[in-house]
Structure formats: structure tokens, C-alpha cells
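Protein record
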Amino acid sequence: MIRFLTPTRPSYPRVVRASAWYDLLVTAGFATPWTYELVHRMLSSLGEAWGLGVLPELDPMQVLYANLMGSVVVVWSVLRLLRPLPVHGLYDGAARTLFSIWMAYALALGAPQWLWAFLVVEVTWGVVQLAPWAVGRAARAERMAV
């Protein structure tokens, strides 16, 4: 029998922790106005150099929303690093689903094409964290039907 990764397997919290490390590394720069200015400049420069689009000029509201998102994700990442509970993987997968929807929406409205790279990573982490819950639910339903 093939053993799938399930939320009850000891390896699942390692997945939760790995996704937290990714989030912390990628979003820490969004958490303050000073670091976001550097991230904004870097992303725009890379987008321009690769022909994938640049971010709009910085304005106070853009900085505020970037800082709010960065701050919340940093705190959420630290929680998952310190307490990588299976339920945190479920909630993180749900949050990644929402992030993915909004990234796809932004891309449909003309956001810089480099956003695709972030979207692919978000979808991948979402699937990796949510699939075990779906597999576990299907297995439980199958056992109850017998």
C-alpha cells in the first residue's frame, strides 16, 4: 500500500515548517517601509531587466498595504516555525489559496509578469499542505463506507 503524506504523519509538520521558512524569507522585506522600498526597487529592476514589468511608483497606501501584509505573514511564519501543528498547515493552505486567487486576479488586470513566479510557489505550497487533508478525508470516508 502507498503511504501518502497525511496531517497525522510525523513528516507533515516539517512541511508546515518549511513553508514558514519560505514565507519568512520572502516576506520579511515587506514588513517595514525601509525594507519594502529596497524590495520594490529590486523587483522593479529585475522586472525591467527581464522585460516582465515594473511596479508602480511608491505611494503611501501601497507601502501601508505591503507593510501590513509583510507584518502579518512574518508573525504567521514565526508561529508556524515555533509550533508547526498540522492544523497550521490546513490554515496556511487556505490562506495560500486566497493569495493565489488574488495574484491571478492581479495578473489578469495587468500586474507585472514576474508575479507568475510567486503564484506558482503559492499554488505549490497550497497543494502540498492541503492535499494530505483531502487524502485523509477521502480515506476516512472510505473506511466509514465499509
Q: What stands out?
A: The two ends are 18 Å apart (CA to CA). The chain has a mean pLDDT of 91. Residues 51 and 113 are 9 Å apart (CA to CA). The longest helix spans residues 115-145.
